[in-house]
């Protein structure tokens, strides 16, 4: 395998692994009835005029499976964090006791579980499309290599390797989605 074909395959592998990692992060944001600090990932609060991730203004912990506790480093941040949580419409109400914010994660109803499974399926399909786009780009690069004088049999092997990589990545995504769906539907 020449240096160019190896580089092309490595780029595709790196991109597909990146897509899988992104999918994993997206799945962690979908709550499955258990409290998880990652539910607040991406939540920004107004910290002296700057939108700042909530995890950078205080400690976030889960004392049990149904609660998330946010203890800001500055007490004057309590109402600001509370407002940000309400504005984000995450499906739970924060309780401010003057020292920290407690979020009680409500149990999921059957209807809400089905909605979450639907959301997981949408995310799964989105990330599969991303992987297919990576495959298309890699195959285009392989064709360019062929035009630049790389032997045809080497390009065909590269395309086969890219397809195998794609199949493996999609299988990983399907397995992750299946596990998340089971987790959501388990009462």
What does this structure look like?
It is a single chain. The mean pLDDT is 88. The longest helix is centred in the last third of the chain and has 38 residues, at 110-147. This protein has helices at 3-29, 78-88, 110-147, 152-185; strands at residues 44-47, 50-53, 58-61, 67-72, 94-96, 101-104. The chain has two domains: 3-30 and 109-185, Orthogonal Bundle (Topoisomerase I, Chain A, domain 4), CATH 1.10.132.20; 37-104, Gyrase A, domain 2, CATH 3.30.1360. It has 187 residues and is an alpha+beta fold. The radius of gyration is 22 Å and the shape is elongated.
Tally of domains: 2
CATH topology of the largest domain: Topoisomerase I, Chain A, domain 4
Largest sheet: 4 strands, antiparallel
Beta percentage is 5-15%
Low-confidence region ranges? none
| CA radius of gyration | 22 Å
- What is the percent of helical residues? 55-70%
Quickly name the level 1 CATH class of the largest domain. Mainly Alpha
């Amino acid at each position: 395998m020449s240096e160019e074909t190896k580089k092309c395959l490595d780029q595709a592998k790196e991109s597909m692994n990146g897509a899988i990692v992104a999918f994993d992060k997206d799945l962690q944001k979908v709550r499955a009835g258990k409290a998880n600090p990652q539910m607040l990932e991406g939540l920004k609060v107004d910290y002296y005029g700057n939108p700042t991730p909530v995890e950078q203004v205080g400690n976030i912990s889960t004392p049990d499976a149904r609660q998330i506790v946010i203890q800001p480093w500055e007490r004057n941040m309590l109402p600001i964090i509370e407002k940000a949580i309400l504005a984000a419409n995450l499906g739970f109400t924060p309780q401010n006791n003057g020292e920290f914010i407690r979020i009680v994660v409500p149990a999921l109803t059957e209807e809400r579980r089905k909605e979450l499974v639907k959301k997981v399926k949408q995310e799964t399909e989105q990330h599969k499309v991303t992987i297919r786009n990576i495959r298309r780009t890699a195959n285009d690069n392989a064709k360019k290599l062929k035009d630049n004088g790389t032997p045809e049999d080497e390009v065909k092997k590269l395309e086969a390797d890219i397809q195998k990589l794609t199949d493996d990545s999609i299988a990983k995504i399907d397995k992750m989605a299946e596990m998340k769906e089971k987790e959501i539907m388990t009462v």
